[in-house]
Amino acid sequence: MNIKDFKILKSKDRFQFSCSCCGNCCRNREDILLSTYDIIRICKELNISVKQLIDKYGELYIGHTSKLPLIRLKPQGIYRSCPFLFNNKCLIQKCKPSVCALYPLGRVVEQGKEKVQYFLQDTHCQPNTQTFTLNEWLDKSIELESEKCFICWTKLTGTLSEFSREVVKQSSKETKEQLYTLMCDIMYGEYDADSDYVKQIEKRYKSALDFVGEAKKLLEDMELV
Question: What's the pTM value of the predicted model, to 2 decimals?
Answer without folding.
Answer: 0.90
